[in-house]
């Protein structure tokens, strides 16, 4: 699977009703996100600087990780509106590191609202992003996507 930003990955559903998407963010993604967001903190864009920090390498912007989550939501819930999000970034995600984006449904939709637990994990299984999102579903778009 390739998304609109040129990211390569693979999506598949879990047995428990969740969705997973595997991808790798490269330094070029960090650099482009910095250019778009204006966040040029050297921990994200300067490998020489980042090598001298406790992380030892550049780390992803937290909101770049969330764009992977948001993209997976948009792909699987077309037309859904993001009503709220609650995010934490407990561990770094490094350039060229395999990541797995998880969306897990908290409960069946009620009143066209769906609650998701979101998580981005590195190859060691450590959470780089943890959170929750509430969506307002667009039933017409979801039915059309399933046809």
Please characterize this protein's 3D structure.
This protein is of the alpha+beta class and 147 residues long. Helix content is 29%, strand content 33%. The protein has five helices and six strands; from the N terminus they run ββααααββββα. It has helices spanning 27-37, 42-45, 47-51, 62-76, 139-146, and strands at 9-13, 19-25, 81-88, 97-105, 113-122, 127-136. A hairpin with a 4-residue loop joins strand 5 (113-122) and strand 6 (127-136). It is elongated.
Nutshell version of this structure?
This protein is of the alpha+beta class. The protein is built from five helices and six strands. The radius of gyration is 16 Å and the shape is elongated.
SSE blueprint:
Blueprint: E1 9-13, E2 19-25, H1 27-37, H2 42-45, H3 47-51, H4 62-76, E3 81-88, E4 97-105, E5 113-122, E6 127-136, H5 139-146
Antiparallel strand pairs: 1-2, 2-4, 3-6, 4-5, 5-6
Distance between the termini: 19 Å
User: In which range does the helix fraction lie?
Assistant: 25-40%
Low-confidence residue ranges: 1-16
Order of helices and strands: EEHHHHEEEEH
Biggest beta sheet attributes:
6 strands, antiparallel
Number of helices: 5
By helix and strand content, what is the structural category? alpha+beta
